[in-house]
């Protein structure tokens, strides 16, 4: 009998949990497992704000895919996915094509600029190892150039972060810790630096406990971050950003660095494929399959699942992507083995911790509110747990965070 071919697209949190579970549950006689990823490494997306600010080297946030997959059971193709052809059951890669019997789309998310003019051209994003390296180098370049130029451009040392959500706040925490180091390194007076957080919504970290948000804002303000809340960004230019001043007027904030951290959408590959989607995310069936495509599972940031309690989508998180990977793998094993009804995916949220730099954080873990070093310790445990779930204790020992305060 012909063995089914399972193709997993993306070696992020969702994709790697799926593959590591499949390689354990299925023998080589039962299925062919193929993993496709742009790079030969996985990166911890949830650590990218650190690499972007330069507080953690980019090599610390990535590890080889080979460290966690069993090559005798899984074929790894390093390639870029360009399109999915559901009718022909095949995936188009930059290096050729691959056909499938079951497909798992775990390609993660992309930055969403909501059509705001100039953002794509002039703002940095925190999306992958390449964007992180570029942003870190750019920040350092601004300090080095300021120190060296005769006619000082003050705006060179102004940093704008668009978005006071999770990514924006975590990046601000790292940046606020990095700036004093850079000032010292380049002999620059700290008072020359401005760090703005510009947010259109009327609050910081929407959905987070208000008491914890107050703590986070106070801590970041103490480190020099200035919040401009309820201030929509109207555009970005070569010299900074344009924000709404009031209903009719706008003003420019001149800045040498603009970081856009205010929106995530699914993968553009989903939109291209013709699979039904909303902002490149697929509202999946309870068993994680795409509507009208019984052979395609969609997980992680490419998927959309509704929190029935509040009738709103769950925010895309690594926590959910990894849990979906577990369910997705079990459901594929059931299909391969002909074992009856597929499992329904239900997220089990254990809490959320938002870092404010390496030394501080806020969080709610098992309904308990945490701040400061306790929250920061929890954050490191959460980061280490993600490594453990994919690569076991050896990966934690190799890449884990042990600089507990
Ligand atoms: P990812 O883990 O992003 O992986 C996608 C993979 O697909 C990557 O390996 C990528 O290279 C590959 N890929 C993409 N396109 C292609 C292509 N065309 N061809 C081939 N390969 C491709 N979530 C939390 O739960 N807790 C947190 O504390 C947290 N902090 C965050 C901090 C930051 C700075 C950011 C940016 C996000 C954070 N998140 C957090 C969100 C979390 O990182 C995402 O929800 C999670 O990464 C989604 O997992 P995924 O498996 O869908 O995709």
Automatic annotation (TrEMBL):
Its cofactor is FAD. This is FAD-dependent oxidoreductase. Belongs to the NADH dehydrogenase family. Signal peptide: none annotated. Residues 5-325 form the FAD/NAD(P)-binding domain. GO terms for biological process: aerobic electron transport chain. One of its GO terms (molecular function) is NAD(P)H dehydrogenase (quinone) activity. Keywords: FAD, Flavoprotein, Oxidoreductase.
């Amino acid at each position: 009998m012909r063995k089914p071919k399972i193709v997993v697209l993306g070696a992020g949190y969702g994709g790697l949990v799926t593959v590591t579970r499949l390689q354990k549950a299925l023998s080589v006689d039962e299925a062919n497992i193929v993993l496709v990823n742009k790079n030969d490494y996985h990166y911890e997306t949830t650590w990218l704000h650190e690499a972007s600010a330069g507080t953690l080297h980019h090599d610390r946030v990535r590890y080889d895919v080979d460290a966690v997959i069993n090559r005798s059971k899984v074929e790894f193709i390093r390639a870029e996915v360009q399109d999915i052809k559901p009718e022909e059951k095949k995936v188009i890669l930059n290096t050729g094509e691959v056909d499938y019997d079951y497909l798992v789309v775990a390609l993660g998310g992309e930055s969403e600029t909501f059509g705001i003019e100039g953002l794509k051209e002039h703002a940095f994003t925190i999306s992958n190892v390449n964007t992180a390296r570029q942003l870190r180098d750019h920040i350092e370049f601004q300090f080095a150039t300021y120190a060296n130029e005769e006619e000082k451009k003050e705006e060179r040392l102004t940093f704008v972060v668009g978005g006071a959500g999770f990514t924006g706040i975590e990046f601000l925490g790292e940046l606020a810790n990095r700036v004093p180091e850079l000032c010292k390194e380049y002999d620059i007076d700290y008072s020359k630096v401005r760090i703005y957080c510009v947010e259109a919504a009327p609050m910081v970290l929407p959905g987070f406990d208000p008491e914890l948000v107050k703590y986070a804002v106070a801590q970041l303000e103490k480190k020099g971050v200035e919040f401009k809340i309820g201030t929509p960004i109207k555009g970005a230019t070569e010299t900074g950003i344009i924000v709404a001043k009031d209903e009719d007027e706008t003003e420019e904030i001149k800045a040498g660095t603009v970081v856009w951290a205010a929106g995530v959408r699914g993968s553009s590959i989903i939109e291209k494929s013709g699979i039904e989607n909303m902002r490149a995310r697929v509202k999946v069936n309870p068993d994680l399959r795409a509507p009208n495509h019984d052979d395609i599972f969609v997980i992680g940031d490419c998927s959309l699942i509704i929190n029935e309690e509040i009738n709103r989508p769950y925010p895309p998180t690594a926590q959910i992507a990894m849990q979906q990977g577990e369910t997705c793998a079990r459901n594929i094993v059931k299909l391969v083995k002909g074992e009856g009804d597929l499992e329904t995916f239900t997220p089990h949220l254990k809490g959320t911790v938002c870092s404010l730099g390496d030394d501080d954080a806020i969080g709610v873990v098992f309904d308990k509110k945490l701040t400061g070093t306790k929250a920061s310790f929890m954050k490191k445990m959460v980061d280490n747990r993600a490594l453990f779930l994919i690569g076991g204790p050896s990966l934690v020992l190799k890449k884990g965070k042990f600089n507990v305060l």
